Amino acid sequence: MRLNDQMLQAFDRYREIIPEYERFLSGLENPLPVSIRANTLKVGAASFLDFMLQRGYDLEPVRGVEEAFLLGGVESPGATLEYFLGYYQIQGLTSMLPPKILAPLPGEVILDLCAAPGGKTTHLAQLMGDPGLIVANDFRGERINVLRSHIDRLGIASVLVCGYHGTAFPLRRKFDRVLLDPPCSGEGTYRVGYPPPSRDNPKVARHLVRIQKGLLQQALAVLRPGGTLVYSTCTYAPEENEAVLNEPVKSGQAEILPLSIPLPHARGLTSWQGESYHPDLVNAVRIYPHQVNSWGFFIGHLRKRG
Amino acid sequence: MVIFASEAERKGILDYFSNRFGIPEEAFAGFRFLMGEKKIWVVREHRDLEGILNQLKVESAGIPLLRTKTSMWKPTTAGLHFFGLFATRNLIDLEGNALHAFLEGQSLEGPFPLEPGFVIVRWKGKVLACAVYGRGKLRSQIPEPRGRGLRGKIGSEDS
């Protein structure tokens, strides 16, 4: 199958900002591999690989992301015995990066403001080694049930689940680090044969930007001074990415930190369609599917000024 | 909403796991119990835990340990996966045809060296699931949708 005219037109607005644009378009025709994350709270990454290979799975480590593996030849990776036992989580490779960039330390108190379905929350717990505390918040009831089922299966005893609207999360509690992966238009998850992303509807797109800016303000408000925040989306739209981060960076509320990731990527934008952003937005990263065969992602790492 | 278990409630929980499964009190050191409407939760101790529970409306904490809606407490799969490795009593290891039949949702005909009530089923030493033993029969307690997915997932090398 090839990209249809509707999608060619939808992505054409990014022609100037996506490197090797034609490769990007053809990358969207590749099937998405199944990536999984070893639950190192239950089994070390090396032991996991040995165990899975012994059990006859086709498993390939991902260079640079120790706990990540590509799983081949399994029709339903969510219906294996090893999944039931909580040895792994099915998770997009690029969606494993925000928790790693946030890099929680043992004993810290972390907020995941839009936590469901829980891949990043459970990864944060694993990176912290479990002895900290994570508040996983999401107001979407059905998705909270999915989040809880992952917490249970992966055996994570350090997560508290709350159900606030993100923009109304209580301000009385301050956190050491915050992960904000807000609702977005999801363009980065698009592959040929899948439904078109919601950005096609300008009303939806504007609504999402309002939500994202509101969530970022709330996330910064509950972050302790000097604390760090990772903002991530699975969309290419600069309006939902650099433009959202631009406001607190420009106002001096937060600084955007340089970050390095072990996968090919592009830098953040400093301008888009006549609008200029703070020059430090170049510190953000953009990941495209022709660079990494996974979901397209945007990640920015902020520190709240004291 | 969840609230901390009282000292008496904590003792009751520890006694349950000790008496039923031989899990020593020390296995729960560093963990707090929280009482929900129909479940008891277990969460890792943290200096800020109490403060957060007072400041935020927390819907669940850590993992569910016991279902308490009936007079007979029922251990959860998540709780047994976490603490079941410390169990010394009311354990049964299954393999081969018996394991396949168990995962198929069939009752296994005993007798087995188990006390009537909830028991832990292991596979190759790993805690697999909760089962109930009564009248000489062992019945799976894996929730149906999850059990369905597991059927046929134990390879022939396990038979």
Distance between the termini of chain A: 52 Å
CATH topology of the largest domain in chain B: Nuclear Transport Factor 2, Chain: A
Oligomer state of the chains in this structure: heterodimer
Instruction: State the low-pLDDT regions of chain B, or none.
Output: 155-159
**How much is the radius of gyration of chain A in Å?**
19 Å
Give the end-to-end Cα distance of chain B, rounded to a whole number of Å. 45 Å
Rough outline of chain A: globular
Counting H and I runs of at least 4 residues, what is the number of helices of chain A? 9
**SSE string of chain A:** HHEHEEHEHEHEHEEHEHEEEEEE
Write the CATH architecture name of the largest domain in chain B: Roll
Hey, roughly how much beta strand do the residues of chain B contain? 25-35%
Q: Compute the number of structural domains of chain A.
A: 1
List keywords for this structure.
heterodimer, A: about 300 residues, alpha/beta, Rossmann fold, 4-stranded antiparallel β-sheet, 9 helices, B: about 160 residues, alpha+beta, Nuclear Transport Factor 2, Chain: A, Archaeosine Trna-guanine Transglycosylase, Chain: A, domain 4, 5-stranded antiparallel β-sheet, 5-stranded mixed β-sheet, 11 strands, about 30% helix, elongated
Précis, in short:
Chain A is α/β, with parallel strands linked by helices and 306 residues long.
Strand and helix layout:
The complex is a heterodimer of chains A (306) and B (159).
Chain A: H1 5-11, H2 21-27, E1 34-38, H3 45-54, E2 58-62, E3 65-72, H4 81-84, E4 88-90, H5 97-102, E5 109-112, H6 119-128, E6 133-137, H7 141-154, E7 159-162, E8 175-180, H8 202-221, E9 223-233, H9 242-251, E10 254-256, E11 266-267, E12 271-272, E13 275-276, E14 285-287, E15 297-304
Chain B: E1 3-4, H1 7-21, E2 31-35, E3 39-44, H2 49-55, E4 58-61, E5 63-67, E6 74-75, H3 77-83, E7 91-93, H4 96-103, E8 108-109, E9 117-123, E10 126-134, E11 137-140, H5 144-150
Parallel strand pairs in B: 7-9
Antiparallel strand pairs in B: 1-2, 2-3, 3-5, 5-6, 8-11, 9-10, 10-11
